[in-house]
Amino acid sequence: MNFGKQFKDGLITQNPVLVQLLGMCSTMAITTSFFNGLGMGVSVLIILTLSNIFIALLRKIIPNEVRIACYIVVIAGFVTCVDLLLKAFVPALSNSLGVFIPLIVVNCIILGRAEAFANKNTVAASAVDGICQGIGYTIVLIIMCVFRELFGSGKFGGGLLGGGGLGAAPGIVIFPEEFGMKLLTLPVGGFLTLGALIAVMQWALAKSEKKKEAK
Amino acid sequence: MSVTSLLAISLGAILTNNFIFAQFLGCCPFLGVSKKIDTAVGMGAAVTFVMGLASAVCYGVNIILVKLDLGYMQTVAFILVIAGLVQFVEMFLKKNIPTLYTALGVYLPLITTNCAVLGVALLNVQNNYNFIESVVYGITGGLGFLLAIFLFAAVREQLEFADNPKAFDGFPIALVTAGLMALAFMGFSGLKVW
Asked: Does the pTM of the predicted model rise above 0.80?
């Protein structure tokens, strides 16, 4: 197994959000502050890795006809664990993400990777795949958060930086809030930002393809 | 509970707090199955049906879970119930309305992983809705989804002929369209019901 290639796949060429177009709901919904994005990204990273390992372990036992139901039960179990752990140790995150934590169960990235990768590959490779894809997802979330927060309300790192408790921290003010594009912090901003990001990705991939052909 | 409160829930679910444009629930099928009006409407109708059914059944399941002190099993129980319901709908359609069954194809089992369905079940519990409110919220939420996906598919059919920047081909331009539609739907947020 080529781990370097897997890493590159997860981050760029097969990025779960920007190229495979999976997990759009959570990407657009929770990327309003740096804290939310990071928390969601790390939660998905952990769940994805664990479920990938588990499904790879069970891949020879699970009958083909009921595999989707089995995957969902495995994933739901891990999501419940993470949900309860967050409620106990990081209640601020649990409050601000709300219903989107249990909804990780139906995040297509996790089911998609289980179906496309973990049920055909070894445990080690699936674990690496989970980590790489999870990092790719987290990075996209963070880019969206930083962009929407900075241009929407003129802040950086809301919920984490700038003093105050976890989740309540105001973030570092880059420019006064009234000059920001309020639009970006609203649901509309989620659609537009993600659309623009995917467009940039398509442009970049097309360009590198052309370069390869020219050689 | 009165008729007005039910009306408020319905209007909220269809317009002001539309599942797609305000809450981002169910975006995957919304973006995936909206290339043609026919399939979009079929999908919307199936989702509405499953959402209504899921709200009703999950309400019962939640009562049992709370009684048994198993509240933490909520997510697992709900997703299993929904998977079962979707399987049931699939078998029912296959037997009785085979045309719709073939039209929906692979997207039918995918309703299981539609976050709007699990979302509505969880939101019902979160908002402490009673049985009738839950069912009304489920069905009207589904109708909101149907409205959104129908309008979006109608726009998207025209997008095929649009001359957009090459990098925006396909998905990005669809997302921008959805964003503009969300902007239009924001106009409803001024709507006040009693």
From this structure: yes
